[in-house]
Amino acid sequence: MKFRGKITDIACLNHFTRVVTTIAKLTKTCVLQLTPDNLFFILSGKVTNGGVGMRCQLLQANFFHEYQMEGVSSELNQICLEVGPDNLSRALKTVQCAKSVKIKLSKKHCACLSISAELPTLSSVSRVVTHDVPVEVIPRRLWQEFQEDNMADFDVSIYLPPLKTMKNVVDRMKNLSNFLVMEANLKGEMNLKIQTDLVSVSTHFKDLGNPPWGEDSSQDGGLSQSRDPESMAEVTVDIRKLQQFLVGQQVNPSKAMCNMVHQSAVHLILLHEDVSLQYFLPAVA
Amino acid sequence: MPLSTISQSQDEQYVLLAILDNARNLSNILKAITCKDHAIFTATANGLKVTVEDSKCMQANAFIQADVFQEFTLKEDLVVFQINLTVLLDCLNIFGGNTAAGVSTALRLCYRGYGHPLTLFLEEGGVVTVCKINTQEPEEPIDFEFSSSDVTNKVILQSESLKEAFSELDMTSEVLQITMSPSQPYFRLSTFGNSGNAHYDYPKDSDMMELFQCNKTQTNRYKMSLLKPSTKALAISCKVSVRTDSRGVLSLQYLVRNDDGQICFVEYFCCPDEEVEEE
What ranges in chain B are assigned the alpha helix state H? Predict the structure, then answer.
């Protein structure tokens, strides 16, 4: 089992740091899955974290100048580590001006991700700062949890409004209530609603557009084709979990969308050029 | 424009209908009087008066004249209801209370009468929010019987000068003592805190002093905790009038200019803490 990567471009380093920081805002611990082509940050939806799940995919070639890995075996060429993204983010933030950063899986007192940064210097002697971030190697028998499972057939898929607007609305609603109802239909309309003893608030977004799922791959396109465009799919979610997701977004994605399974789950998807972030929010009973 | 199409047909049912192009003009002034959750709204043909009280010793009033609104229609002579002010402010700022130029939240505020919720329609950038805030049985606001004929001392100051003093006030002091006198020290603010006593004196011929009308030396103490909320009004005001009557009741009137240059008033009444023996 080997992993070694090198980032030499400062823009890539900043970008990578930003992604890790975003992850750190969403969860305290998560799984870092390394494959020959991709890095994944994964949080599988367990009861202990309220059923919230996350999956962030980074194309290694877009970040790393050198990238070598050797998995557990040749047929299962991957490594799964449990990491605290906050530790990673803190280590990366301190080396923002580095000429190059090497990230290596190493064995010290325990398994570590060693982040060695070569810092700029005026003399001929180079300075290298190394951060060791402890990680835990996850045994193979637990891996099936981290496979990407297909989202159950969703009822409605819709593009999200500008995240900043959505964040403002959700922030205020959080002051008023603990639960929020998300509603959307296939006419590009989405509503955010709260209701308490004191007040009911509903925010209506329209003309958002619906992503064309499965149109090119198959004709039937599942449930959504036969659905009445006016009819709303509705999910009640924990407002803090939704807010957490919105707070973490540091850069505006090129595409933001949301798939909803009526009364059961919300699946938020943000696509950047080289990063994709998926967030699963279960419905509250 | 979506706001004008919504419930146009229902307009007749409302006893109060107010339209504002920029919801900030209302939310900013209401923010200045939030010290307790419950606020009494009194609408008359002149406009809207919002009253908040604390401990039966302090009262804050915000006056928003009818002409601040683009439309202000009242079907009855007097409409009174009580509402949770914190909730109302969250609703008014649902889009984040944007300060950027060119972006503003349009507001349509409607009330159908006793027992009905207060309905707000807010619109920004094509996104519409509808809020229904439940109204409560209005309480009778305290009458401080503060009449302008009984005013003993009065000064009008540029808010700038008072802001500075208030920002430096020793908040460990339980009270703020205000001395107004026709002779030295004219106008003095004093605190008695953990780290000692402090006095702020204003000469009566200062540029900051617009009016100085003191007839009798008066020294009164006011609970800092009751006066503290008034600093929010001070922060957005341009002038302040400080008056006391023969009983020592303090009246602070703030003149507030909104984003569109219109003028609104915020008034505070505060009872004195205890009698101070005059030397």
Answer: 2-5, 24-31, 85-92, 159-167, 224-227, 230-236
Please list every residue in chain B whose beta carbon sits closer than 8 Å to the beta carbon of residue A169.
94-95, 129
CA atoms within 13 A on the CB side of A226: 4
Owning domain of residue A14: 2-146
Structure tokens at A78: 């991957």
Mean pLDDT of B103-123: 94
Same domain, A135 and A185: no
Whether A6 and A129 map to the same domain: the answer is: yes
A151 occurs within a structural domain: no
**Of the residues A92, A123, A146, the one at which a domain ends:** A146
Give the model's confidence band at B153: pLDDT under 50 very low, under 70 low, under 90 confident, else very high. Answer: very high
Q: pLDDT value at position A217? A: 42
Tens digits of residue pLDDT in A168-221: 999 999 999 999 999 999 999 999 999 999 999 999 999 999 998 755 444 444
| Closest chain B residue to A190, measured at CA | B127
Q: Are residues A121 and A186 in the same domain?
A: no
pLDDT at A225: 57
How do residues B194-225 score in pLDDT, each as one tens digit? 989 999 999 988 888 999 999 999 999 999 99
The answer to whether residue A120 sits within a structural domain is yes
- Answer yes or no: do A7 and A128 share one domain: yes
Residue B250's contacts (CB-CB under 8 Å, 6 or more residues apart) are B178, B220, B222, B242, B243, B244, B268, B269, B270, B271, B272
Per the structure, how many domains does chain A have? 2
* pLDDT value, residue A151: 64
- Between CA B40 and CA B60 the distance in angstroms is 10
Residues A83, A165, single domain; the answer is no
- Number of CB pairs < 8 Å for A and B? 58
Is position A235 within any domain?
yes
Q: Which domains does chain B have, with CATH numbers?
A: 8-133 (3.70.10.10), 148-270 (3.70.10.10)
* Confidence grade of residue A256 (pLDDT, cut at 50, 70, 90): very high
User: Residues A17-41: pLDDT tens digits?
Assistant: 999 999 999 899 999 999 999 999 9
Average pLDDT, chain A: 89
Residues of B in contact with A172 (CB under 8 A): 90-91, 93-94, 96
Query: Quick one: A15 and A135 in the same domain?
Result: yes
Distance CA A117, CA A128 (A): 5
Q: What is the CATH number of the domain that holds A120?
A: 3.70.10.10
Nearest CA in chain A to B134: A198
Nearest CA of chain A to the CA of B16: how many Å? 19
- Rounded to whole angstroms, the Cα distance separating B188 from B176 reads 10
DSSP H stretches of helix in A85-179: 85-93, 163-176
Of B124, B126, B134, the CB nearest to A198: B134
